[in-house]
Amino acid sequence: MSQVDTSPVHSAVPLPPIQPPDPTFPTKLMLELRGTRFEIDRELLMSLPESILIVMFPNGLILDDQIIFVDFDPLCLEYILNFYKTAQDAFYSNQESSSAFPHIPTPNPLLNKQAIIVLREELDYFTIPPKSKKKLPSSSSSPLETDKDAVEMSTVEPTINIYELKTECGTYLLHQRKIFTALQRNVNKENNVAEQHLIDMLCVSGFSRDDEWGYRNIEPHKTSIVSIALVILKTTGQNQMATAQKLLLFWRKPARKCWWDGLEVTVGEDKAIP
User: Fold this and answer.
1) Which intervals carry biased composition (Pro residues) (predicted)?
2) Nearest 5°: phi and psi at 135?
3) Strand, coil or helix: what is 258?
4) For residue 50, what pLDDT is reported?
5) What does the alpha-carbon distance between residue 48 and residue 161 come to, in Å, rounded to a whole number?
6) What is the pTM of this model?
7) How far is 224 from 124, CA to CA, in rounded Å?
8) Bridge partners, 136 (sequence order)
9) If you average pLDDT over each of 25-39, 94-108, 139-153, 213-227, which comes out highest?
């Protein structure tokens, strides 16, 4: 199995634009994602993390057609938009509650925008069928043995449906929803101090070590699982603010980590396929 591309990306929900958008571009876009249609504000779409937009529009956003067809899971986009809406509402609510105090302009984006950490994982898995170790007895008569039959052991290879095996392995991995389990296992194996420090920073900034993916699904017709988790960046304490400043280095420059991992599991309805 291959664990690919865990990308901490630092994004932000922008404030409403002061100037109206260019009239030559539509303010709302109609997207069709694998049969599901979304009407979305252009400004909101452009505010999504760059790592998400690249996957949605690998050839760029083309506005020639009224309906834009996108090969992207609608459940994933719905999860992202719902989180952004919740984060935006919370940010503006805090802004209104503090409006009684004089506003002091600051160049620090952590103080005038709602920052969000985005983790995205692509897991490509490869299924290796098991080698049979089962042997069945078979009797055969020998002309040299008159009082008993010679018993031979013959190996029987079971018939394994490779497509069914891939499906079962994908289902097993789909239920492994802990964000940091696979990465932590790889860090422990390689004793990578830098990546351990990154996990620690993410946990200080809003994630928990036992957090699960907010979205996780198998890509259609592929042995690949895509997962996404979002969290509002914490900046309440001095330690958290210092960590947030370090995470700003990932703004529009996602950190990427690729590694190989292997698991031996037993799958199937009767757990008969090791």
Assistant:
1) 14-23
2) -125, 135
3) strand
4) 86
5) 41
6) 0.75
7) 4
8) 154
9) 213-227
